[in-house]
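Structure in, sequence out. Go:
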């Protein structure tokens, strides 16, 4: 009976069915519903259960309901293989790593592709920014755990794809306010609907906080506007505008062990002396068009442009200003004939930075010390073939070729001319096999290669002059993976993955005595791990979600100097064990509660494994009540994070100079809020 109700069928035709619109339900999906969820993160639409990748899907009720923040880390707490750290530092962004990729990023996200409504926020140089991503507008998060370089390029760790507000047929309003500790508050409003056959969505959010630590005040405003129009031909056009204005985001910096022991809420001395922090103003416009071409073919076109005005005062005598424009686009063609499905396309992106560095005495901009133009151009054609060999066996073969060019034009010649150019060329093939024991139990295996080019920041030479370091190599990875997904009865969904990754030329950060960060290649790393995700209905009203990750990531060839051999040492900032379990209680009368327990084992802080920070076990609690009145729903809620006040570090800075590894997390945080829907 379950198999019939799930509606699984071993045909590739079902996988090209239109993606359903987001549901208005505020209740997390059932295990059997999880299996039927349609996912598009692989660029080839499929059911979550049948997609030949390790994919996790998190719906809006799971990351938004009775939550106090739009931080991406809140949506990844029950995704195995993913380690998300948030230290409440708006100047540094949330740090996210998948299978070790991105764990050593000094800011932003590395080794992982980020999409918002199919438009990349990952730059051509591989750096992903999260400033403009606020889950207050989110409807769904799809996480591909594992190499996606064969279809997206430069994504050895995987992909995070976020869907935002979806137009609705009837007009729907959502108003929400939350207030919490550290003088934090957020107000969000959105409206969706349809006017004369054109769907629309509009969202506005504003956040302020005094911050848990000294010198961590922040305020940010974001807006989203979306128009969608469907045509009689079956085509669909979407225009989207998104903006973020953050005039203040102070950076409290990293503490050493003594400073952390004396006062966890203090700021680093350098952060105060140089008034460390950042300001930004960014706009993004995108256009996406899709339509059927007949005979099992579809075409998708997209284009976008980003304008970013950014200024950052570092906790040292340097200030960085740059104006950035990013222009990109691409196409995807899907074709299906009998047991064969073909996916082909290409992406092209151009990044133009106009960078200026100044001295920063006393936190004020002073003498110009660097002025250069940094341009990055990337081109990536790809093709993927899926063949339904038998009713139970599917084979996937794909490859992508990426060409990336970095050019720097030195405009500050007082210290000589450092103009330069560097090119990277990478081929990323992938082979996958998938066997269906039954429509509710599927085994898959894959072998793939991936890469990650250095960013413009990671190419910066250690001698502090302009230009690029031409000796820097791209990371290259080979991933072998086995996975098993399925549904047991109508109450249990499971997802198990085992992987072995070999990475060479790993980019590793290090700091000089002034705490300035540079990068070098570190030979080879071997990453072996196990991921487990479960979703289980215990009773009609009580459900359980759980995730566990075992991550044994070690250097295999790393000798940074003549006297130090780091072979066998663990990679820093990745816990060996990471687990989370959540109990959810949803009563028909509207009362709901959530209890989430998370555990992380100890973290190594440096490549030599000479310093570590203790792991932590934390407990979060959320309570709320959905009150329904004619034409309106009111949902008051309260919550507490880290209920028992465990002390741990929200973020660490790997290989930090003079021991400034630590960015402590708050102890207990309390918040309350109300959401109105009508």
């Amino acid at each position: 009976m379950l198999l019939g109700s799930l509606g699984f069928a071993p045909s590739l035709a079902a996988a090209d069915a239109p993606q359903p619109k987001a549901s208005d339900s505020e209740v997390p999906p059932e295990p059997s519903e999880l299996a039927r969820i349609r996912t598009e993160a692989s660029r080839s639409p499929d059911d979550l259960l049948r997609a030949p990748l390790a994919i996790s899907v998190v719906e809006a009720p799971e990351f938004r309901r009775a939550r106090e923040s739009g931080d991406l880390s809140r949506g990844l707490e029950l995704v195995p293989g993913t380690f998300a750290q948030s230290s409440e530092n708006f100047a540094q962004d949330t740090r996210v790593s998948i299978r070790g990729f991105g764990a050593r990023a000094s800011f932003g996200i590395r080794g992982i592709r980020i999409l918002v409504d199919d438009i990349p926020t990952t730059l051509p140089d591989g750096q992903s920014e999260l400033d403009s991503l606020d889950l207050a507008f989110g409807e769904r998060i799809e996480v591909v755990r594992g190499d996606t370089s064969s279809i997206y390029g430069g994504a050895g760790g995987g992909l995070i794809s976020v869907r935002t507000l979806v137009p609705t047929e009837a007009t729907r309003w959502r108003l929400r306010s939350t207030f919490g500790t550290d003088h934090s508050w957020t107000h969000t409003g959105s409206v969706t609907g349809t006017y004369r056959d054109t769907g629309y969505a509009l969202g506005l959010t504003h956040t302020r906080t005094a911050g848990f630590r000294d010198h961590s005040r922040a305020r940010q405003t974001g807006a989203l506007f979306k128009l969608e129009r469907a045509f009689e031909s079956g085509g669909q056009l979407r225009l989207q505008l998104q903006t973020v204005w953050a005039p203040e985001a102070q950076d409290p910096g990293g503490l050493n062990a003594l400073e952390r022991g004396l006062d966890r809420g203090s700021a680093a001395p350098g952060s105060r002396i140089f008034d460390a922090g950042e300001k930004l103003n960014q706009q993004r416009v995108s256009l996406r068009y899709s339509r059927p071409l007949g005979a099992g073919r579809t075409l998708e076109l997209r284009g976008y442009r980003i304008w970013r005005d950014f200024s950052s005062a570092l906790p040292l005598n340097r200030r960085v200003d740059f104006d950035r424009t990013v222009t990109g686009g691409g196409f995807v063609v899907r074709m299906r004939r009998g047991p064969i499905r073909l996916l082909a396309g290409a992406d092209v992106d151009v990044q133009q930075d106009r960078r200026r560095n100044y001295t920063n005495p006393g936190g004020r901009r002073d003498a110009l010390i660097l002025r250069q133009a940094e341009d990055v151009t990337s081109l990536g054609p790809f093709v993927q073939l899926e063949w339904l060999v038998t009713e139970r066996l599917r084979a996937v073969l794909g490859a992508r070729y990426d060409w990336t060019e970095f050019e720097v034009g030195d405009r500050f010649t007082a210290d000589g001319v450092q103009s330069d150019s560097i090119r990277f060329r990478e081929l990323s093939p992938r082979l996958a096999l998938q066997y269906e024991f039954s429509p509710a139990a599927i085994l898959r295996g894959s072998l793939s290669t991936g890469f990650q080019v250095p960013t413009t920041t990671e190419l910066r030479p250690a001698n502090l002059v302009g230009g690029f370091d031409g000796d820097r190599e791209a990371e290259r990875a080979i991933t072998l993976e086995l996975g098993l997904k399925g549904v047991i009865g109508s109450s249990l969904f499971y997802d198990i993955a085992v992987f072995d990754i070999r990475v060479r030329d790993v980019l590793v950060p290090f700091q000089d005595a002034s705490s300035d960060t540079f990068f070098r290649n570190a030979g080879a790393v071997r990453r072996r791990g196990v991921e487990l995700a479960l979703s289980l209905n215990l009773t009609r009203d009580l459900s359980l979600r759980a995730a566990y990750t075992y991550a044994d990531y070690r250097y295999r060839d790393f000798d940074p100097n003549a006297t130090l051999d780091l072979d066998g040492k663990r990679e820093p900032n990745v816990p060996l064990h990471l687990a989370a379990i959540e109990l959810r209680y949803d009563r028909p009368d509207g009362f709901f509660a959530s209890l989430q327990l998370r555990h992380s084992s100890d973290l190594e802080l440096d490549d030599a494994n000479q310093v570590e920070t203790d792991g932590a076990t934390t407990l979060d609690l959320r309570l709320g009540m959905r009150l329904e009145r004619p034409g309106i729903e009111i949902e008051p809620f309260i919550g507490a994070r880290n209920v028992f006040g465990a002390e741990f570090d929200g973020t660490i800075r790997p290989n930090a100079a003079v021991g400034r590894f630590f960015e402590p997390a708050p102890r207990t945080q309390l918040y309350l809020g109300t959401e109105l829907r009508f």
